[in-house]
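Table S2 (continued). Query chain:
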Amino acid sequence: MKVNEANGKQVATEVKYLGSKTISGIKWEYGDGSTESTTGLVGNHTYASAGTYTVKARVSFRDGKSSCEVDPTKNVSIQ
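Corresponding output:
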């Protein structure tokens, strides 16, 4: 997760994945009530106010007929 230097309330989020299953989508929950769905590994969000937020990425995988999800989380501090 990277906070934009020019706009301290904007963050770029990214999931790094080296496995063999196909990621079918990611639902980002930014901790302030905002969500975003992406088919790629990157999300972007601008917070309205300063604070510490927990960002969750619900990553959905598909491998043939089977599927699974994981929910990695990370905290971000916005000034």
